[in-house]
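Example with several molecule types.
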Amino acid sequence: MLTQIIAQGLSVGAVLALSALGLTVIYGVMGVVNLAHGEFVMLGAYSMAVLSEPLGPWAAIALTPLIVGAIGLVVDRGLIRWLYQNPVKSMLGTFGLGIVIRQLVLIAEGPGLRYVDLPITSSVAILGEQLPVWRLLLIALAVVTGVLVALWLSRSAAGLKVRIATVDADVASALGTNVSRVNALAFGLGTALAGLAGALVAPLNSVYPNMGVSYLVGAFLVVILAGLGSIRNALLWAAGVGLVTSAVAVPQDDVLAQVVVWTLALVIVALRRQTLVVSRV
Amino acid sequence: MLRSRLRLPATAAAGLLALALVPALMSDFNVGLIAQWLPLVVLAISLDLLWGENRIVSFGHGAFFAGGGYIAGLLLRGPQSDTTGANYDLLSEDTGRSAFASVVDALGSVQLAGVPLLAFVLPIVLCGLVGLLVGFVIFRIGSVEIYAPLVTLGVGVIAATVFLKLAAIGGSNGLSGIPPYVDGGPQAVYWFTAAWLLAIYLAYAAFRRSRAGRRWRAAGDDPIRLDALGVHTRRLRALGFAASTALAGLAGALYVGVSGFMSADIAGVLFSVQALIWLAVGGPGSLFAPLVGVLAIQLGQHELSEQLQETWQLLLGVLLIAVVLGAPRGLTGLAGSGVAALQRLFARQPHPGAPS
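Resulting structure tokens for the full complex:
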């Protein structure tokens, strides 16, 4: 059972990590707390559900982040840019956005559950237990994506611009960086990551318009623990949350797992000596 | 200033008149409907105490509202619960269930003039204590304006999941068949609830004008400066948070007395945000925002949600975005600037050459 718990925990953590990563990048760059993030995960899952039939699962997984990221770009230009650097305003505005996306999907696709077939149905034996290959692949993909995003931010020229704009938008602008383009890029990247999380998790869970809330809440749990702004911390805490969740959920049940995880999180936060500093990326 | 000293009694008289007109002019059905909205105004006041006066946004007040409602509902109705639909029975053993039943019976039997007193006291005390705990955590983290919404969001999610699975409070069926606090039909229930609302509103108006109210506002506007002035701001804000959750619990207790029903949905994030939308539409920080916001949204929901169905929720989302972008001070803010514009229009223009 231990292998089972670790594999399931890490795959839950991988999805959390991808969603939390998107939240972190968006907050770090533009000071927006995106409460519609769960809805972008949901859009990713729906994109997977719609595209995997005609195109096959792999093409669907590759296309979904692009599609959701493009939607994110449009939303950034249409709404998010009015909410920059104002966390409270951004929370209310993006919650409204979340309602709008959810209801549009509900009207277009109906309230029913949709299912996506597992792209890989086989399983491998590790330490005497059968583990589904898809879960292992999901973990690997999340780690690779996280590392790539971190490398892009720290090594590439575009990443450098993002980091300058994060530290001081005015200075970046004076030095010739197009800050509004950087912001749009960051929101597109964050939503694309959410879309990827949705596409990867769709074969494991059922897909429905209200599914976003639980991913939003999970991602926020990670963010509360890791602090908004640190990619490495977000990945580590996501793994931790996933492991604790499955350590309770596998032998007991999901409800108890959620209660245990949140209680632990609040205790950890309350016992911290230092108050959490909100650093940016 | 005489004018500002008269404003509070004048407001109270106007409020009393408006509340009195409802049962005089409307059918029993509509009186019953409006009576259900009055506790929602109390919930909106509890949120305004945080958001409007202290810049703390809570995404979890529905949990305290529902918690208070469940407690009051159990005490009003008694513990005989049908447990179908509840799949997580914490009190599955016979002994546990009967002990629970006798505790509920004993608590419900403390009555004053036929009203179970503890149905008000327990929600206030328990929701206040939980709120104190949550407030302690929030104000320890720092960056309150970001982390308060996140932590309260989590509290709401836990509460909704747990309420949904607790057989003792009806599980996914909810707690139904709760009798009202007073006999005598919708009119009596309306008056009972309206009296509570008026008392709470007056107390809130008085608090806003008091020294304590000004200190509370200062703790939100500039906590660091207030710290430097020697006030233990973190403790003050945690206490204020607890007061707000206690008021939300009282609102829930009043609500079940009117609606006769409480379900786990109410504890969830969506209802908590609906409450935030009332306030955003009303205009946080304004005395009348809770009343205006609740009436505007609930009236719209009542009139439109049947015909529009999913589109109503869509409209609500669009409305929230529009208010956030276009009218951050809500309807009361719009009305205020409208009045100011009219005053400028009708004010006698000073003659260009006149001495000032």
